[in-house]
Amino acid sequence: MYPTPAIVIGRINLGEADRILTLLTPDYGKLRVSIRGVRKIKSRLAGHVELFCQVRLMLAKGKNLDVVTSAELIHSLDAILDQPERLNLAYLMASMFDRLSLEGEAQPELYALGEEFLSTLDGGGEPVLLELALKLRLLEVLGYQPELSHCVICRRSDAACIYYLSPEKGGLIDEACGLAGGYRFDQKAIKLWRLALTVPMVRLSDIEGATKLAADSIDLCDQFYEYHFGRRFTGGLLGV
Ligand SMILES: [Zn+2]
Predict the structure, then answer these.
(1) Ligand 1: distance of its center to the CA of 107 in Å?
(2) Where residue 73 falls among pLDDT bands split at 50, 70, 90?
(3) How many domains does the chain have?
(4) Domain shared by 59 and 87, yes or no
(5) What CA–CA distances, in Å, run from 20 to 35, 76, 147, 190?
(6) Interval between CA 171 and ligand 1 midpoint (Å)
(7) CA of 43 to the centre of ligand 1 (A)
């Protein structure tokens, strides 16, 4: 037996009462476990292992999959179940973590990101800002953080300069180095992206004009995913 905190990012029903859960854990990365009798009435585990719940689990080694023996709820998204836009973002997070996390490898930064994202989502953060912060911070965790402090070619850093953003080159390119067909990226958006990578998500709503800047630039962020992973993550429920 071993304990672990976990975020439930997927579930499949199995037979009449059992379920397979996909979990994100800090120490074991993505983990698939089975949970028995969870769909029987009065199951003591049922309410604690819904999608997007953050839980503290006790797991027993199983032949194939390990088995949940007890579950204690840390945080649930019950409060936003009637808010489609927020719920959709939770699905988007689960879909991204499921596709991009590794099985059997410690991923504490990824777990911490999920934890912060879910609690901010529940606490009223602006959805498009949360989406941008999630996507940028996930790029960082995965080692693909865009270079936002200087031109990736000549290293020029100048607040008055016109910059372009290039997923292929990995970040900003200034006007002198040029970028045929590049995407112009204004200084305010650069500043927001930097902040999205450094300040707690809950504080992003305090930045003036942040919501519009995020909405205008999220497509550029999606292009980094397209370049590195061959696909965009945009749909939430629809995209899963
Ligand atoms: Zn340059």
Answers:
(1) 34
(2) very high
(3) 2
(4) no
(5) 6, 19, 39, 42
(6) 11
(7) 61
Spacing, Cα 174 to ligand 1 middle (Å): 5
Segment 179-205, tens digit of pLDDT: 666 688 989 999 999 999 999 999 999
Indicate the residue among 53, 76, 99 that finishes a domain: 76
As a whole number of angstroms, the distance between CA 17 and CA 159 comes to 60
3-state secondary structure of 189: helix
d(CA 83, ligand 1 centre) in Å: 44
Span from the CA of 70 to the centroid of ligand 1 (angstroms): 56
Extract the tokens encoding 238: 């629809």
Determine the average pLDDT of the residues in 9-31.
Answer: 93
Query: Which DSSP state fits 45?
Result: S
pTM over 0.85: yes
Do 58 and 112 fall within a single domain? no
Q: Each residue of 202-214: pLDDT tens digit?
A: 999 999 999 999 9
CA distance 198 to 238: 30
Q: Which residues hold their Cβ within 5 A of ligand 1, which is an ion? A: 151, 153-154, 156, 174, 177
What pLDDT was estimated at residue 124? 83
